Amino acid sequence: MQPEATAMPPPADNTTPDREPAENPDWLFLKETIATLSSTRRYQLETMLTRMLKDHRTMWGETCCGLLTAPAGSYNHHTETGGLLRHLREMTQFHHLLRTTSALKYKWDPNFMTEDRIITGICIHDLHKAHAYFLAEKGEDGHYVYSPYAKLWMTENQKTQALIATHGLDLDMWERNALEHSEGGWAENPPKGTTVLAKYLYLLDELSGNVLDRMSRGVLLMGDRGRPLTYPVEPTAV
């Protein structure tokens, strides 16, 4: 039996657009995590993200979502208001869980897979989505829509590199490599044949976006845009 294809309903909003940063649990969680990093990285990362929290007007006069309100996607995953922050929080929580499992505990390379690199990689892998990317006003179907200029002037990773340079975040060569390769199918450079850091960030991205979020919505497989393939029957334990 083929799974039934249904139109995707508008996402339920778990946060309000005018919620202040001090009241947003996902932002507070990220801030607490960032506070555990080295002093220089902590200051640079928190300063950059704080500056990007609010909605903003672009050079074309449109109002776009900031980090507090941006979804992680228009149709694919974490499409609600504040979905991007929730996605980053889930990636961080999966990292904390994996980092402390017995399978990885004694195989972890603390000199390369540092908390600075991993938490920074999580926070910046979708950074372009919090600046001049999604219009603050939703479309007629209740979903966020892309700014018509979102991809006109540069690619996603180029935009992230520009934002990082503008806000003074210093990345090392491995962090830059991970940024270019860690976004999976959408990256210009997929994470094949690259560093463990990039592959690990891609794993966290997939666990949050294409496993946890889809299960929470009962989505078995994404078909054409706006037409998720739902479970044909209630999933049962094997």
- How many independent structural domains? 1
The helix-and-strand class reads: mainly alpha
Strands of the biggest beta sheet: in what spatial order?
A: 1-2
Beta-strand content: under 5%
Please give the radius of gyration in angstroms.
Answer: 18 Å
Characterise the protein shown here:
The chain is mainly alpha-helical. It has one domain. The protein contains 8 helices and 4 strands, in the order ααββααααααββ. The protein has helices spanning 25-34, 39-51, 83-99, 102-105, 115-124, 156-167, 173-181, 196-217, and strands at 56-57, 63-64, 219-222, 228-230. The strands form 2 sheets. The protein has a two-stranded antiparallel sheet with strand order 1-2. Strands 3-4 form a two-stranded antiparallel ribbon. Helix 3 (83-99) runs antiparallel to helix 5 and helix 5 (115-124) packs parallel to helix 7 (173-181). It starts with 24 loop residues before the first helix and ends in an 8-residue tail after the last strand.
Describe the structure using short key phrases.
238 residues, mainly alpha, two-stranded antiparallel ribbon, two-stranded antiparallel sheet, 8 helices, 4 strands, globular, disordered N terminus
